[in-house]
Design the sequence.
């Protein structure tokens, strides 16, 4: 597909600006920026972006089972709710009296999410999941400093954690202590006991974890950390599996971030807007950034704290994302939220059981929202890798699962079907997965050439990584 610069035709344009009714001002030549922009008609521009859209793949196009990402279909009514002019036309510097509806949205969404997570208060300032992690770790740091406990400098992170966990801990100024997983894919209790001490600031943990298992020792884990004087941080990336069923606060966690763009109806991926609100127990509430929305006699206002760690983002965070999340919560309600979680677990286990006789599973235990397959044996026997299997799926009109993660599983494929896929669709996908595996056994060379019918076939990934082309040489800025 050609770039806009390659489609450009001199003299084509689509401007419909009115005649200027004020004197023209020309910048001095030394300050003028020479722009070489493509020249196209409106028709050409429209066709270009339509063709571009047709070459992308999203949940509206087909199966999209990215493990640990929860790429599920989101009702479009939530988009309509956030598009209301009463929300989109607001200015964040308006007086509180003119923002009562928006403040009520933040207040109500905070109440519901605190109920789901077992937290005392929630901030919506963080812009995304990793930003939420960073904010939660700053809360932990502020808590220890307020207690004049400066020796607590270490954050414990299991080896199966999301990659952003150790990065966020380092960004917040902590030393990261990595502990191994046990043979069952869960936290090694002995390793955790050996790691905690007077320098432990906290533990970062995802539960269900990144291999899709709910850690049966979760209460023991949080107790060990608390007895050492540390706090427990809950990475909410996998909350979709347990929302409305079990609460992080009841597991013993003190602070949690959520991904509204995973669990609560906002498009995930493609660089779109995210939201990573952070909730915490009462002991951490004074340190929350940006103040809290409080309600008094039906009126809403901001209330700050002198101990607040300060803003982590300007104004109210990504407010329209919160509107979508609240619409989702109100639509599903107390019955629908746990039903969505239960169906996510049901779909994952159904798919896992239907594939287990063909694809070796990394862990045999009942999974939650996702499961991990290991293609290590297939690679040894045929040379076909997890990457080859994933590439082949593209020819069947579906997105591959997460590849080579978690790192503790060799040749890993991690599948999360989500609750929004029907049994009929899962059966179709299962048949495709089995067909691809059978093809790998009888014709591995052919599999290594796929995909054959996509707009872009196999790129030179090593070359792209070592010699990336970041700028179009034929023109432009």
Sequence:
């Amino acid at each position: 597909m050609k770039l806009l610069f390659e489609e450009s035709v001199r003299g084509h344009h689509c401007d419909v600006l009115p005649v200027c009714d004020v004197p023209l001002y020309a910048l001095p030549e030394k300050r003028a920026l020479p722009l070489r922009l493509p020249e196209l008609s409106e028709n050409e521009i429209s066709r270009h972006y339509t063709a571009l859209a047709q070459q992308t793949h999203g949940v509206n196009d087909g199966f999209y089972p990215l493990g640990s990402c929860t790429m599920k279909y989101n009702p479009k009514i939530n988009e309509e709710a956030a598009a209301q002019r009463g929300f989109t036309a607001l200015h964040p510097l308006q007086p509180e009296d003119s923002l009562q509806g928006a403040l009520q949205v933040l207040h109500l969404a905070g109440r519901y999410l605190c109920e789901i997570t077992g937290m005392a208060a929630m901030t919506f300032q963080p812009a995304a999941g990793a930003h939420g992690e960073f904010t939660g770790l700053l809360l932990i740091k502020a808590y220890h400093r307020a207690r004049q406990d400066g020796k607590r400098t270490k954050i414990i992170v299991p080896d199966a954690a999301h990659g952003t966990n150790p990065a966020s801990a380092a960004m917040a100024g902590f030393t990261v202590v990595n502990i191994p997983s046990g043979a069952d894919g869960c936290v090694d209790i002995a390793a955790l006991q050996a790691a905690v001490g007077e320098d432990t600031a906290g533990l970062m943990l995802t539960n269900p974890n990144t291999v899709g298992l709910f850690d049966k020792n979760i209460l023991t884990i949080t107790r060990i950390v608390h007895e050492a004087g540390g706090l427990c941080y809950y990475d909410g990336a996998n909350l979709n599996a347990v929302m409305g069923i079990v609460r992080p606060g009841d597991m013993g966690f003190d602070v949690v971030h959520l991904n509204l763009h995973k669990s609560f109806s906002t498009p995930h991926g493609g660089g779109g807007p995210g939201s990573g609100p952070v909730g915490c127990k009462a002991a951490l509430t004074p340190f929350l950034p940006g103040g809290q929305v409080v309600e008094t006699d039906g009126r809403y206002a901001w209330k700050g704290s002198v101990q607040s760690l300060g803003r982590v983002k300007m104004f109210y965070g990504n407010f329209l994302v919160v509107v979508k999340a609240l619409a989702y919560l109100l639509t599903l309600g107390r019955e629908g939220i746990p039903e969505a979680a239960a169906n996510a677990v049901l779909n994952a286990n159904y798919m896992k059981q239907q594939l287990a006789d063909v694809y070796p599973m990394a862990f045999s235990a009942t999974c939650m929202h996702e499961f991990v397959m290991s293609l290590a044996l297939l690679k040894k026997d045929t040379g076909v890798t997890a990457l080859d299997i994933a590439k082949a799926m593209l020819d069947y009109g579906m997105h591959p699962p997460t590849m080579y993660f978690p790192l503790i599983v060799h040749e890993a494929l991690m599948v999360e079907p989500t609750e929004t896929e029907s049994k009929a669709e899962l059966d179709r996908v299962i048949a495709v997965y089995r067909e691809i595996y059978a093809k790998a056994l009888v014709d591995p060379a052919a599999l290594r050439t796929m995909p054959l019918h996509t707009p872009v076939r196999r790129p030179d990934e090593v070359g792209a990584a070592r010699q990336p082309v970041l700028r179009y040489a034929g023109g432009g800025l």
